[in-house]
Structures are given as structure tokens and as C-alpha cells.
Amino acid sequence: MDYELLGKIKGEELKKLDAEGCAALCGEIRRALVARVSENGGHLASNLGVVELTLALHRVFDLPRDRVIFDVGHQSYVHKMLSDRFDRMETLRQPGGISGFQRRDESPYDPFGGGHASTSLSAALGFAQADRLNGRENYTVCVVGDGAFTGGMIHEGLNNCRGDLRLIIVLNENEMSISKNTGHFAASLLKLRNSSGYFRFKRKVKRVFSKTLLGQKIYRFSARQKQRIKRAIFADNYFEQLGIDYLGPIDGHDQKKLELLLNEAKKNACCTLIHVKTVKGKGYEPAEKDPDVFHGLPPKGKPSAVTFSEHMGKALTERAKKDEKICAVTAAMASGTGLVAFEKELPDRFFDVGIAEEHALTFCAALSAAGMKPVYAVYSTFLQRCYDQLIHDAALQRLPLTLLIDRAGISAGDGPTHNGLFDVAMAFTLTGAEVFAPLDFDAADRFLDRALANERISFIRYRSGGENERINDLPYLDESVFLRGRLEERPDGVIVTYGQYASEALRAAGEAKARGKAVSVLVPESVVPEKALTEALISRIPRDVPVLFAEEGVRSGGAGERWQDVFEKFGRRMKVLAIKDPFVLSEKGQTPYETYGISAVDMLRKLFG
């Protein structure tokens, strides 16, 4: 697709575009977004919604000397196009390509990495304070969606905003109202406050009155009176109560007004928040009508099937209809974790706490203490945010709790920020916790029933997507301890693994067979090496063959290290293959398993090396 402006006009040329040119460029950006995200997958609706805003930021500020930090960073595609990566957009979310989030090592235009919500303001504050301490006069701009304000970190950051920082916060409201203005007079005052004449008059009055002592007193008095009037008309403004200058709200798709307020914020001698209102999916009708569906798209050609998320949501709903103690909890991920049906059918026992994973965990612990059966559905990467609550509020008090760990394992498209590689290591630090890794839906149902009935913390982990035909027909070798696998009569080696990663172990066994070697694959669906399971597994491994424990998770503190210790107590040796560096970036032409050194070839090399 050829463009007249996009990719050809940058930097100072971008700032010289007239209104007609800006509108044309925004149109090209939207066409490019739809084309690229439809092909590669990724976040579409959120990027379509910030086209004019991102263009305004690039026109008003001196990037990358000034900094722009997008909360989460999933809406930074337009920023990448307008900076230095348009010619690489075809590699978006591909191995060795550009990230779907901001990433420091990708470009000087990305000052701070992202992937999780509510972190941006704390980071922006750090940059702004460093600039103040070093006498630098550049600006830091933080773009935060209204959804992120359901996360506590944003409010912690707001509480620490100093008035003298060159920090500009752009509140991008696209779903919920944060400050409500009422009445025709309020609307008229908003119109006045969003005009260039108002700001010029305001600065002139301040200059005139500041020349004399009496004038200074009059100005301070009038400013206090103005604040009282504003509070009466607009109600208490949360941000101004914190000492942050507030501008807006304005139409986030009005290029002229956006640039007016951004320029005014630069002239302010204090921390300023600009409130903009945008439409998710703007300019692409399907995304405007259904922004949830177009929030994150799979790559082109990816087959649709019933996912573990959808199945577990349905299974939980069916059980909750029969057991009034079952509650479902999510942190702004009802759709992603398959809980939409539960929310619709059992709204009184469905709790979406917003982007507040830590709160969700403690909330679940208290529900449990009060005799309920809470089930917390959360992505593995976001569970990392509530490790303290897992220890202090749940495990320490020995409270039963069920966690449905979604998106466990490597996230090929989203990359390191969304990889689910730490949940097993976290679970293994909690005394008495159970960890289940079902291979198919029937096993998932069995473990859900067990988790809801027992008095322990139970983790049920599964990857994105549905059942894997390669592994869902693996026979049970001992159903009483949930041990599955494929045994060779005279194996030359044995691979032990768990979860959907078992498909790679079977691939390794197939490659070994092609080389004239027989490899057994043992897959415990209950991952913790309890006595009965360990004995059942060891009894199926000849003493004189090499054994490898392979996992799609971190090596340090992971299941492999625990199993290795247990095997040593039985006088047996076991090698471990796991991820040593969970933050490594993918290389072009590599599979995710190759990137992390845990591919089928790596298994055989480690097993027989």
C-alpha cells in the first residue's frame, strides 16, 4: 500500500503540515493500522482512537529530546509510525521485529518499556524529577487511558506529583467518565477555557498584577475565588485538589484544540493534566461499533476454536449455578479470561475489580475467609503483580483459593512483557499449594472440581488457544496421580514435562526416533512432586537411562529444580532444561522455543549430551 505522506514526512516537516495535510495524514495512518493489524494481529481499536492525539504530540514536542510514555504501550503503533519505524511496521509482533509495546532497546523514541497498566505515571515522574535535579528543560508526557485509573499505581503517582515539574499528563478518556460537568453555564465556560484568547488573557493578567505587592495579593485572592467558582460549577476536581493544573475536557480528535492545549501546558510552570475524550476504533466502523472485539486481533489465518479460557468460563458458570458459594473475580479481563457468560448469568457473584490485580487477590482471600469459594481468573503475566498478596493474604492464613492462570507460557506475539513464565516458580514457594496443568478440557474440568472442593490454594494453568491434538489423546499411565505419557519398551532416554509444552517433548521424541533412539515422554498433570506421583513416575523410568525435566518456565525456583531435588533423594539423576533468561528477545526466523533455548533440538542435546 502506497502513501503520499506517511513514512515520507517526519520531524520538522511534520510540524509544518496545515490542517488539510494533518487530516490526510490521519487518514493514511488509519488505513495503515487496519492493514497491518489485520495481517499481524495486535491492538487495533486503541490505536485508531489515538491517531490525532499522537500526531499532536509529535507536532508540539521535540521528540525524542522530550519524552512520551504511553501507559501499557499497546496504543503506541501510531507513535512508531511517526518516529523511526514506519519502514519496519511489517515486522510488528513478529520474531525479530518491532514490539507491540514501547521498548527502550528498540528506539530512542521509547524512553521506557511497557506492557502492564498503570505504570506510566510513576515512570514519567522519575524522568521529570531527574530532569529537575539535572537542570534540564525538556518535557515528559504521560498518556494514560481512563481504564488505568482503576489501578492503584496511577493514584500513588498522582499523590507524588510536584507542581514544579515539566510533566504533562494526558488523560485519554474513551470508556468511562471521570469528571462530570453539568449545565449550560459549565458548557459555556468549558468553551471559553479551551480557546487561545482565554490563555493569552490569563497570562497577561498575571504579568500585570505581579508587578506590585498589592497586585500580587489581588491576584492570589482572585485565584482563590476562581477555584471556589470552578468547584461550584464542575464539582470538586480530583486533579486540582492534588495541586495539578487541569485543562479540558476536549475532543481528542480535534487536531487544533489538542495542539492548543498541549502548547498551553508547555507554557505552564507546573505539572498539568489535559483531559481528552476519544473514541476507540475511530474511523473504522466495525471497531467503533465493537471495540472489545477489535481491542486485540489474532494474526491473519489463525484458526478459531474453543479456547481453554472459554471452556473454563463455561465450566465455572455451570458449577456456580449449583453452588451458591462460588464467585468469579477478574481484573478488567472478563472477556479475555472467558467470564462473560458468568457475568451475564450470575451478576451478583461476578466481580470485575478493574486493573487492580493486587486488590483482587486480597479480595478473594477475604471472600474465602468468609466461607465463599472465590475463583480468580487472571493472566499469568498479571499474576506477577500480586505475589505479596498470595503470600501474605492467602498462603500465610492457609485460605483455600482457586486461581485460573490464563495465557501461561510463552506469548509469541506480545513478547517478554506478556510471557507467563513465573507462575509455577511463584506457586512452588507456597507451602501446600497445588499446581495443575491440564492437557485437555476433560482434565481441566476434573481439576476445577478438585480445586473447588479442597482446602488449599490451587493453580490451574493453561495456554492461550484450545486443545492440542498432538497431546490431548496422551493416555493415562496412572489416573490416580494424573500421570500421562507415552512409554517406549526400551527407552534410550526419558523426557518429563508438563502442560501444553508436552507437544514439543513429543516432537523431540519423534526426532530422536528418526535418529534411531527411543525416548519416553512422561507428563504429570499435577506438577508438584508429591510422594505418590513421584513414586509412580520413577517406577516407569529404567535406572540406567538419562532423564530430562523440560519446562516452559524459568529455571530458577521452577518445577525442574524441585523435581531434580526429589529425584536425588531417590538416588536418581535428572537433568533440567528450562528458561535461563526470561527477558531475551526473539530473533528473526526463530521459533519461540528456539529463542529461549528449550526447543525439541535443545531437549535432545541436553538429554544425550
Polypeptide structure, described:
The chain has 609 residues and is of the alpha/beta class. The protein has 3 domains: 11-179 and 237-289, 3-Layer(aba) Sandwich (Rossmann fold); 308-461, 3-Layer(aba) Sandwich (Rossmann fold), CATH 3.40.50; 481-608, 3-Layer(aba) Sandwich (Rossmann fold), CATH 3.40.50.920. Helix content is 41%, strand content 15%. It is built from 25 helices and 17 strands. The protein has a 6-stranded parallel sheet, sandwiched between helices. It has a 6-stranded mixed sheet with strand order 12-13-15-14-16-17, sandwiched between helices. The protein has a 5-stranded parallel sheet with strand order 1-2-3-5-4, sandwiched between helices. The longest helix has 22 residues, at 19-40. The two termini are 50 Å apart.
Task: List the SSEs and their pairings.
Elements: H1 11-15, H2 19-40, H3 45-48, H4 51-60, E1 67-70, H5 77-82, H6 120-133, E2 140-145, H7 152-158, E3 167-173, H8 184-193, H9 196-209, H10 213-234, H11 238-241, E4 245-251, H12 255-267, E5 272-277, H13 285-289, H14 308-322, E6 326-330, H15 340-345, E7 350-352, H16 357-369, E8 373-379, H17 380-383, H18 387-395, E9 401-406, H19 423-428, E10 434-436, H20 441-453, E11 457-461, E12 476-478, E13 483-486, E14 493-496, H21 502-514, E15 519-524, H22 531-538, E16 547-554, H23 559-569, E17 575-579, H24 592-595, H25 600-608
Parallel strand pairs: 1-2, 2-3, 3-5, 4-5, 6-7, 6-8, 8-9, 9-11, 10-11, 14-15, 14-16, 16-17
Antiparallel strand pairs: 12-13, 13-15
Helix pairs in contact: 4-12, 6-7, 9-10, 14-20, 16-18, 21-25
